[in-house]
Fold this protein.
Amino acid sequence: MIILGIETSCDDTSCAVMKDDKILSSIVSTQLKHQEFGGVIPEIASREHQKFIITIINQALTEAKVSLSEVDAIGVTYGPGLVGPLLVGLNTAKSLAFSNNIPVVAVNHIEAHIMANFIEHPKIELPALILVVSGGHTELIYTKDFTHYELIGKTRDDAAGECIDKVAKMMGLGFPGGRVIDQLARQGDENFHQFPIGMKDSLDFSFSGLKTAVKVFLAQHQEDFLKENINNIAASFQKSVVDALVLKLFKATKKHRVKSILLAGGVSANSRLRNTTKVKSEKYGFNFFYPSLGYCTDNGAMVASCANYKIKKYGIESFSFEKSLGLDAVPNLRLSE
Ligand code: KG4
Ligand code: ZN
């Protein structure tokens, strides 16, 4: 079974080839044009996807030493995400499928982030709690059966990644700022300043208060002091974000009996989040899974992995290019509950 995975929901043009549960190639082209604006500009994102998608698909096929005629199925993200970027991926997938008679598997971006875990861990014991943390989402999910998900907590305002990116921007660290904050924080003192944790007693999250607290802190201090302490500020801020995520994740394990804990989404690349969750999971006896760094932020491999799961579950005959012709982009797509 050879699957081509296509992901274009935001600012990464990505494509991967999976053969019999193994990723043969995974190409991710991150659009740098948004950096000067400090955020993703949807119109620019669509045009950049349009320019590069065929090249990225060709690269993925070439690296995997696979020709399009050998592809058994195309997995493609149809939501949630930005409508223009989603349409580029979707229409490219439909065209390739139509001209080569290849079945299309429509993939939910959030489910794909979750299923990035299957690339390296094909056996995950259920039930499981999943913390999905990305630039657009912060959700706590309980599942007894992958493909059916119960949303038990979500952010009431900013997503964790959104808060990290906005704070990084305030600190002059560029966009997106997650990786830089993570790197600086490693050399800083996380107890330098205590930033707040929102909604401590709930399974929901709130990051806007934290964002404001950092803004006020930055405004109250001299430039020299801030420069001197940039590592300490990054570490203290990161501690607040991660402590909020971990607090709710383990609070949820008291209400829902689970065997496994999974991280998913771009922020699951964060070293402190991984380490803290690992230590706590070991302490309380949960299996703990998280994707490799290359599969945390948006990528085509997670889409191929999700398509692979669905093909195994429902059978390849459930999918066809004809069925995909009516498929539309769904910017606010939710996980099936
Ligand atoms: O999953 P993703 O690529 O896109 C969305 O679906 O939103 O996630 C991107 C987010 C950005 O906010 C980025 O700053 C964050 O993931 N991120 C990190 C790290 N690497 C990426 N946040 C914290 N620590 C990291 N190491
Ligand atoms: Zn994502």
About this structure: The chain is about 45% helix and 20% strand. The CA atoms of residues 83 and 299 lie 18 Å apart.
